[in-house]
Amino acid sequence: MTEFVNVDLGSRSYNISIGSDLPIGTALGESSAITALVVSDTNVAPLYMERCVSLLEARGLTVTSAVVPAGELSKSLECAADLYSKAVDAGLDRRSVIVALGGGVVGDLAGFVAATFLRGVQFLQVPTTLLAMVDSSVGGKTAVDLPQGKNLVGAFYQPVEVVADLDSLDTLPEREYISGLGEVVKYGVIWDKGLFEYFEQNIDALLKRDKAVLLKIVKRCCEIKAEVVAQDEREGGLRAILNFGHTYAHALETVSGYDKWLHGEAVSLGMVYAAKLSVALSGFSENDAERLVTLLDKLGLPIKLDDAPDWAELRKAMDADKKTLNAVPRFVLAKRLGEVIFGCEVPEDALKAIG
């Protein structure tokens, strides 16, 4: 069974297809005039590159592949420059398409290259991780990191199609899969209490990667993100709610050198931090905060730091967050399960006390 979610952005609208054994490139049609560059990483390419290339070639496209090292460190200007060179060598023109085959790192990097090469070529997302399926592949955020902070150089650039093939989750390492559940839980907190309760009731099925459950939650998470993005494509307001837990998470990833925590793990710790701030400052009940922490814990996500980083270093990293204004970080805080508020200034003493 295949489900579809439309991201309604006028002339930039596109479909997300969710299911098993899905075709790739339906939005491109069939044309021998289109040249494609498929970007993947050293973990995913051995598993899925051949199939992806074959499906695109079957549509008549001329396909070249590029493989970057797996991991956050590939989200760099250096890797982007290397991909620009590969795009030139492959003969890409403005009709061409860059295909991201992989997780969030590959999607962000390839999307940034697509947005900037020749001032923009077509971009197609084929996410292979749970986190990418529900979050980073949808909405058009592309970026690379700097040593000073995560996602500081990027562009809003929408794909022409997103293909979320749930079969790729079968080969996803356990830690990567669990990490993706961090972003999944976020959607229940920020938008849909019923979805949060569904997670609580289906923990075992989630951990067993039950396809029926995954189809339902990936579709619902994509629906939520599509609705938010349709109202606020460039994060001028509402879209900021998608960053619940992320101010702390991005700072933690930065001070740890991008190689200690997977993104969903950092988001889990960030949501625990944001929940504590919310209890103190925005009326979030202690019971709801405990429900959130308990759910994260039962899903195998981290809920506390055994070796906390230096607070001054962590606090400095928060200042580099994109949501910071006048050196004051802005937080998304919860009012209740399913409802959050954004753009919240938090007193310095509260930041440190909870951190």
In CATH terms, what is the fold-level topology of the largest domain? Answer: Dehydroquinate synthase-like, alpha domain
Structural class: alpha/beta
Count of folded domains:
2
First and last CA, distance: 45 Å
* Name given to the CATH homologous superfamily of the largest domain: Dehydroquinate synthase-like - alpha domain
Q: In which order are the strands of the major sheet placed?
A: 1-2-9-6-5-3-4
Counted beta strands = 11
Mean of residue pLDDT values: 95
Question: Main β-sheet, in a few words?
Answer: 7 strands, mixed
Q: What's the number of helices? A: 13
Rg, Cα atoms, Å: 20 Å
Which class of the largest domain in CATH terms?
Mainly Alpha
Task: Describe the model.
The structure is a single chain. With 355 residues, the protein is α/β, with parallel strands linked by helices. The protein folds into two domains: 3-171, Rossmann fold (3-Layer(aba) Sandwich), CATH 3.40.50.1970; 174-354, Dehydroquinate synthase-like, alpha domain, CATH 1.20.1090.10. Helices cover 44% and strands 20% of the residues. The protein is built from 13 helices and eleven strands. The chain has helices spanning 45-58, 77-89, 104-116, 130-136, 174-190, 193-201, 203-207, 211-231, 246-255, 263-281, 286-298, 311-319, 348-354; strands spanning 3-7, 14-19, 35-41, 62-68, 97-102, 122-127, 141-146, 149-156, 161-165, 330-336, 339-345. The strands form three sheets. Strands 1-2-9-6-5-3-4 form a seven-stranded mixed beta sheet, with helices on both faces. Strand 10 (330-336) and strand 11 form a beta hairpin. The chain is globular, with a radius of gyration of 20 Å. It starts with a strand and ends with a helix.
